[in-house]
Each structure stands twice: as structure tokens, then as C-alpha cells.
Amino acid sequence: MAGKEEWSDVCRQVNTCALTGAAAFFAGIPDAAIVANGPLWCYFYALRYVEKSCAGVAKRFFGTQPDNNAVVYGTEECLLETLASIRQSSRPSVLLIENSCSVSLIGDDIAGIAVQAAMPCPVVCMDSGGLTGGFWEGYRAAAKAYFAVMPLQNRSIVQPHTVNLLGCSIGYYNADNDLRELKRLLELAGYKVLACPGAGSGTEEIAAMTQAELNLVVHAELGLNLAQDLQQQYGIPYLSLLPPYGLEGSIRWLNTIGQALPIGSNGLQAVQQEADKLQRSLRTTTREMQRLWGEPWFEHSLVAGPASVAFALAQALRSEWIATGSLTVVLHDGAAAYPAPPSIDSVLDGQNDSQAIANRLLNLAPGLLLASGQEKALLQQQAVTNVVCQHISLPVHDEIILHDRPFMGFRGSCHMVERLWNQYMNFCQWGR
Amino acid sequence: MVLNKRYMITMKRSCSCSMPGVWRAVAHNEGAVVIYHSPKACGHVTREMDLGGHYHALACGTFVPKQYTAPLVTSNLQEEHSIFGGADQLRQCIEYVIERYKPLYIIIANSCVAGVIGDDTPAIAQEAEADFGIPVLTVPCSGFLDGEYHAGFYYTAKILAERFMQRQPASANTVTLLGDRGGPHGADAKEMTALLSSFGLQVQGRFPGYATLEQMKRVPASALCIPLGGRPQSYDWMRRLAVDLEERFGIPFLDHDFPVGWTGTKAWLRQLGAMLGREQEALQVEDEQAQRLVAAAAKCRCALEGSQVVLGIGRPLIHLQPGWVLELLTLAGVTPAKILLFKGLTGEQKTALRQELEKHTITPIVDETEGEVLMHTSDVVVTTHELEDDALRQFYLPVLPPLGVGGMIELWNKLGQLAKRPGGQGGVQYGW
User: N or C: which end of chain B has fewer CB within 10 A?
Assistant: First the structure.
């Protein structure tokens, strides 16, 4: 098979469609509206995906539902109908029109149709069906298209100690809580977050993001290209780091930011004080449990998620949270913008190593799985028991998080240790 | 918890895709492999749908581990194939599948992209079949074009029957179920098996799903086929399959959709009795079912006594036959105060619904806007769509109606639970 394109069983992979990725970026801009110019099936799928973490998005996410004739004669009629309805019912600050894959082949002049519809806001037009890729490709393309149409303010004023967070998305598991914790940590250290495009900032906040001293890339697979573009176009420097998991990992993250964007020692002292306090509390509590339950140990651990999440979380797992034998990481997006941290034993490409992933899962017991509902389902389907499972990435169908309990940062570290310990003790009682 | 607020979305055209229909038809048939001639994303969408099904089966206690799941491989169409065609890509993909999985047969489903490009998939399949000596079958649908989910499901069954079945003598009292209602371990399968066993009939298999090649070859030995539809759209396609099998192999079929509601169950039993020449047995089974029904309805009556119930409909007739819903409520002692037609319906869809509803009830039928106040003061809203007001007690009607008296009991139990929620507690009770 050498030299041939690699195919694999998609039932063993985690991804969505570029239509969903692009919609996720715009859904993360509260005053944006979205039109999926494609079949109801594709639209419903994308809507269902984003509304899980963005309640109410259905009110600003529309579908045109072209039929067979539209695929031959064009989507002008159904698109105009949808745009007229949006014009009557809402006042978005920006509108995304994204073509599904089959509609993208017709070659409709979508921008021309939008002009004809006299939309009262800027319109971003793009092809974003499966032909262009999956979630990550869609998100990146949408971010690029947004900034091409929506110019930012001149970088005449730069506020000291301010940052923007790039590459965050509602399309990641527990993203809201993580973002809140990142902002809290940065503020504790003395920084102010100005904007998070695609993750909660409105168009005005985004327009003013040029005032920030630094762009911080949280998830490189989503935000690195954007950071590079913004540096080139507006001269905003950027720093791309693995996201902060674990107490030490979070301090390391803040220290690295501090090197790029120096701040007085007070901020970092406050950060260190909080970390020390939490560390003492963690030690006391877990030691108490250790007396009864022993040191948690997993022969094999597998961490699966988007590259930034999987790498950073695996690193914290091994260096801070729990003792494990072999540590494998599966990258849902297939490739990483970062080198693998040295503490990871092996890295698998979630888009092309289906068979190797299946084998790893089959032989995981007794082990630990930090992954999505997909990997857990594969274990269940193969009747693999003796594995402690903890969700860290989407899709998730068997867990709810109601409280503000992040995975990242200091609070995230406590949360993860708590979850891992509780799971381990449950496993000792019921799982073996 | 996030609710889908999609009642405002009008289903103007097709709402599904034929490819998942192809997949579902053979997803658990040993030796089958499915190829989507599509972008990879289409496979991910199908997998996500299946993953929801996996967790739902776990929730219902019908999950069975180690069940065969056919590999789903996509030909990974990309933008370049829209110019040069995707035929070579598909050929290589077939070659990979044959080498890697050594399947007993391959089914190829075309995407809308393949349909627009115009690849000659049947010719490629024929060529591959000649080269490799295994059946490589195609289905005449292209994504959402040329038919929806049910068309994909039907054409897969048709081609399997044509290729693998031969006329043979009937084996007395054996039945093949046509279609899929939650798999062989689901509640509907149990209900149907119990009803048939009352007549001394034995379910020898299902078709096209959950069947090995050997089991498929035995289908023509069935004494009877029973189509499982549930709503007009699905029944039309399953009846068509039953007609095909009768014409080709002489297998008679029960020309009635599966039993829905009490009237539907009685009619189904009587028709089956008449067909088998066992009218007395049919009446006896009817009596037994009536006893089950009366006991369960009485419980629900108590729970709903004095409650004001409103029925809200946002699904067009093709997706909801309201007769069984009104009967379900009447037997539980409930007459809806009003029937509201949601604003997502088109004028034409509303007219058709009114005509159908008036055959079953004299309850006033009004547009949502006219009945909004009543809806918000009612005790229970029986609805086809989730509503935004979380204070409402909403009973969400399943898209597929429940099978037989067992299905009605399940719905009554849930309706009773909803009515008995303490205080003013609202929320949604899902009817599946």
C-alpha cells in the first residue's frame, strides 16, 4: 500500500465537518449570525453540535435547505429567502454565509446574492463543507475569513499588560469554564484580557483587540495561524504555549508569559501563594486517602483529544496528578503544531492510526482513559473493563458539568485530581 | 442542560441524507464494509449519530457488547476531485478496503458531492467486483439528492436481496422483520416477538440489518414478512421492500404498518389473524392486550386527573400521524384543551394537519400565537418540539411512534411521571 493515500475506519475517529467548525467560530461571537447554505441534514448536524455548548444559538443560526433543483440552477432563491427573514427578525453585527460541500461546487456568487439582499451588516462568505476538511479546518478558515472582512482598529494605542486569547472555542469540552479560569489566573497575575475571538467576544471587543500587548494562543490547532496573520497584518506579537494544566504547569505558563510580557513581582507572588495553598490542601487530602486506598497506579494510560489539550493534559497527568506506566496520546486533529512533550511515551494520529488506536484501547486494562465518549464507547463495544474513564474532550454523552469547574489552571488541577481520585476509589470498590 | 429550540425551523424540504440509511442497513451485518464516496466529514457525521445511539442503548439497557460493526471508510473526496473527478480515488479506496478488511461484500453510498461531480460509481463497482471477485454493490442515491435516509436503507436492502437471495420452500410459521426498530434487543423487537409468538410465529431474522450473509440467504424461506415502518414515510419504503420480496421470492407479507396505538394494534392483530386463517386466536390476543392496556391506562388516568393538557404540533403530517397521539391521550382520560400548530409549519402543512386532526377530534385547533397564553398556563404540554419555557411540563413525542400496547404503556408511564412532578417543577420528559 506504500504511496497510497491512507484510508481508515471513521468509526474509530473523532472529528466533525468544516461546516461545524466554521459555525463554532461564529457562534462564539454573540452578535454574529450564521447561515448554512446547504441541506437541512448538514445544517441540523452543525446546529446540534454547537448548541450543546452554546444554548440559544438556533435563534441566530439558519439553514437554506436547497433542493435538487437548487443544486442545478443555484441557491439564489432559497438564500435570498433566508436572508430576507434574517433582515426582518434580527440585527446581527456580522453574518457568515457558509456553503456546504455540494453547494460549493455550484459556483454561486454568494457575495453578490448578499449584496442583492441588502444585508445591513458585513457579510463573510466562504465554502466550508466537508470538502475543505473537518472541525479544525473550518474554524481556522472562518477565523481568517472573519478578519479579512472585519478590519480591526489601528494599533495606535497599546494598553500595558493586556492580552488577547486566541484559539479558544465553544467546540471544545468544558471550554467556558476553562476560559473563565484562564482569565482569572491572568488577572491574578496582573494582566487584563481584552478579547477572545470565537469564544465569547462580540465584534466591538474584537475590533479593539489591537490594543493588546500580546496575543496568547491557547489552542494552537485553532489559533496559531490567526496569531501569525495578526502579527503580520497589525504587528501584534504572539506567544503560543501548551495550555496550562496542573498547578506547576499553570505556574510555568504564567512565568513564560511573564518573560514575554514582564509584570511586577506582586502578581506572580499572588499566583504562587494561591498555588502553594492549593498544593498543601491537595497533599493533605490525598495523603489521607492514600492511607486507605494506596497510591493510585495505572499500568497504561491513554489521553485523547485535540493536540493542545491532549499533550498538555498528558504532561500534567504524568508529572503532577497520578502515577502511570505507559502513556499514549491520541491527537484527534491528527497532527500537532507543537513537539510532543518528552514525558509522553507514544503519540498516535487520530485521523490515520485507527488500527493502532483500536489495539491500544483493547489492551488498555488495567488502565486510565482520559478521552472523549468515542474512545469510551469503543472500550464498551469491545467489552474492555478495568479501565477508569474520564472525559476531557468532545463528544460527551454521559456526563454533565453544571458548576464552574474547569480542567485548566489551578482550580482545574484540583478538579482533575478530585475526579481522578474519586474515580479510582470507585473503581477499587466496584470496577475490579 | 441545553434544550433544542428548533420549533421555529421550517422543514421545507428533505431533512435527511441517504448515506446514513445505507450505513444503518448493514452496520451490524457480519462481513459487510461500507464505503462512502464522500468527503471524510460525512463519515464523521454518521459516526456521531451512531455514538448517540450507543449511549441511548446503554441507557435503555439494550446494549450488547462485541456486536459486529462494519468498518465505515470514506473515499475522502477533496476539492481537487470536483475538477478531475473522484473515480480513481474511489478505486484506490475499494482496493484498500479489500486488502485491509477482506470483506464478504462492500456497499458503496454516494454523497451529494459525488452526485454533483457525476462519478460513475456503478461502473467502478462493477470493475472492482470483476477484479477482486467479491460483491461490490452500489445504491442509486446521492446524499440528500434522490431520496433521503429511507431511500438509502431501502435500496441497500433491495440490492442485497437481488444479489444474495434465491427462491426456496417456505418454512412454516417463520417470520422475517423488514426494517429496523432499535435492533434485535430493543423494546420494540421484544414487543413484536411477543405478539408474533402468541400466534405461534417465530422471528427467524431481520432484514436488511443485523443479518449475516447466511441469515440473509434464509430470508426467502420465511413464511411471512412483516414490515416495520412506524410513520408514512418509512412504511412506504418498507412496504416497497416487502412487495419486492413477494414478487421475487413469493414471500407473502402483512400489508399493514406495525401496530401503533390501540386501534392500530387491533387492526394489525385482526389482519394478521385473517391472513393466517387464525381469526379466533387474533381475538384472544386482542383480549390479552386489552387487559394490559386497561390496567396501564388506569394508572395514567389517576396521574393526569384534573390536569389541563395542551397538544402542540410542529411536525408536518409526513413525520407525525396525530391519530395515535390523540388516542393515547383519550385512553388516559385526557382531552386536550387546544391543539396548537407551531409557527415552524408552512401554511400548506398546517392545512393538511388541520384536515387530519379534524378526523379524530373536535378540540379547537389554533395557531401557536393564538394559544400561547393557554400553553403557558397548562399543566402539561404534549409536544413535538422542545419549547423555550422551562417552567412548562413538556412531554416530547417520539418521532417514531411506539410499537403496540407495550409502547403505549411506556409512554403513559412517562406521562404519569411528568404529571406527578412535585410543585411547579417544569421541564421535558422525552417519550423514548
Answer: N
